[in-house]
Amino acid sequence: MKFLILACLLLVAFSQTYPKQTPVIGIYTQSTDEDDIDHFESYIAASYVKFVEMSGAQVVPIYAFSTQAEIATLLPKINGVLFPGGDESIDFTQRWTQNAKFILEWAMKENDAGNVFPIWSVCLGYETLAVITSGNTNNMTTLSSVRG
To answer: What pLDDT, in 10s, does the model give residues 106-132?
Structure first.
């Protein structure tokens, strides 16, 4: 009986010492002014933050105006990235697209090494990843050309 009580007490003590671990998801921001991302103004629509938090995860912004060195420092500290929908130019000469490419390539290297690092993309985010993986923007068609 003493052994059973001691085992229960140890179980309770050890279960209280481990902190609750929740995933941390980075959400890639969009610039407020598509012509000049260097003003360091960006945003995340609140609906994406709520979406991630409702799953039990914490949210960390990945600022579009960050340097790739800053992003490289952040990525190992999070558990995945969400590329939201919105209104941003997909242009390989702009920092927003270059940073998105950097994040995707980093995630692919991690996954190839056996470290699970999920990417979720919505609308513009999906289009961005499709353009990045194809390597050019010539595959994109405008809505007016589709409607004829």
So the answer is: 999 999 999 999 999 999 999 999 999
- Helices H / strands E in the chain, number of each: 6, 6
Task: Mention the CATH class of domain 23-147.
Answer: alpha beta
Q: CB neighbours (10 Å) of residue 139?
A: 9
DSSP state letter for 104: H
- Distance CA(45)–CA(29), nearest Å, equals 9
Instruction: Kindly report the length of the chain.
Output: 148
Q: Could you tell me the pLDDT band of residue 146, with boundaries at 50, 70 and 90? A: very low
Give the predicted TM-score (pTM) of the model.
0.78
With CA atoms as reference, report the closest residue to 85 among 120, 124, 47, 126. Answer: 124
Distance from C-alpha of 93 to C-alpha of 142, rounded to nearest angstrom:
20
The 10s digit of each residue's pLDDT in 30-74 is: 877 655 555 668 899 999 999 999 999 999 999 988 999 999 999
Ranges of each domain in the chain: 23-147
**Which candidate, 81, 84, 80, places its Cα nearest to that of 123?**
84
Residue 12, pLDDT score: 61
